[in-house]
Amino acid sequence: MTLETVSTSKAHGGTLGVYKHESTSTGTGMTFSVFLPPQAVEGAKLPVLIYLSGLTCTHANVTDKGEYRRACAEHGIVFVAPDTSPRGEGVPDDADGAYDFGLGAGFYVNATQEPFAEQYRMWDYIADELPALLGANFPVDLDRMGITGHSMGGHGALTLGLTYPERFKSLSAFAPIVAPGQVPWGHKALGGYLGDDRGAWRKHDAVALIEDGKRPAGAVLVDQGDADGFLAEQLRPELLDAACNAAGVDLTLRLQPGYDHSYNFISTFMEDHIRWHAERL
Ligand SMILES: N[C@@H](CCC(=O)N[C@@H](CS)C(=O)NCC(=O)O)C(=O)O
């Protein structure tokens, strides 16, 4: 597992790095960023937070606009931002080049449908390969790992956190797709990657996972802007609220007045999410 360092730069007393490696999950090169806070001194093992990005993003969107570094430096959290899909020569994309499927839209599943099945293996990448890579190359304590994300990445965080509560000890999301089986983005992505078997979709649908008995490691924080243009059709946080209420899952769902779907919203509440994870890791 060789890592290539693309860049490093000092920030808030720590180091922001961008790294590349050849992924065994996707069979492609994958790029991610890591912020090491100043507490990352020789011999330290720090809690780590993985942030999964949304549609159209690479590692760079949250790295440039997420404004997480000051809070991570304060709380001693390592922040990791992976890409949202495999990329590179020969990696298939949406047939029409649409933004909501294919490149930049891996939806954090292992695809079973051709021509995506070989490389679109973002579930394995985030659940297994990336943590192992972090453990081998950075001063992280994998027993103190949390997960968060935005929109499609919020969906990834919720489904991974619900499926592997022993791995992801803290969980939050910004404007997540909570029930892809019930909304257009999810129908397209889960149908395209997993085929027509809706039973397979349920393993990648946070609301269905809760209905089917999965539980997160602890309480869950979700922030959602009420001026988000995707709220009513694609995100539908009320479905998560209802599932959590029925199942006794401790969900803090905050509807934030006036906020949209952008990084202006995410960066506003990022500090709260870093603190949420720091208190639980
Ligand atoms: N306006 C976008 C829709 C996709 C979108 O809003 N993507 C969100 C995540 S779901 C995002 O973070 N975009 C990148 C950014 O704002 O930097 C498009 O049509 O390309």
Overview of this protein structure:
The active site is at residues 151, 228, 261. This is S-formylglutathione hydrolase. Its EC number is 3.1.2.12. GO terms for molecular function: carboxylic ester hydrolase activity; S-formylglutathione hydrolase activity. The chain is of the alpha/beta class and 281 residues long. The chain is 35% helix and 23% strand. It has one domain: Rossmann fold. A hairpin with a 6-residue loop joins strand 2 and strand 3. It is globular, with a radius of gyration of 17 Å. Glutathione binds at residues 54-57, 61, 99, 150-152, 261-263.
Question: How are the SSEs ordered, and which strands pair?
Answer:
Elements (H helix, E strand, L loop, with lengths): L3 E8 L2 E9 L6 E8 L9 E7 L6 H7 L3 H7 L2 E5 L39 H16 L2 E10 L2 H12 L6 E5 L9 H11 L3 H5 L3 H6 L8 E6 L5 H5 L1 H11 L3 E6 L6 H18 L1
Parallel strand pairs: 4-5, 4-6, 6-7, 7-8, 8-9
Antiparallel strand pairs: 1-2, 2-3, 3-5
Bound molecules: glutathione (GSH).
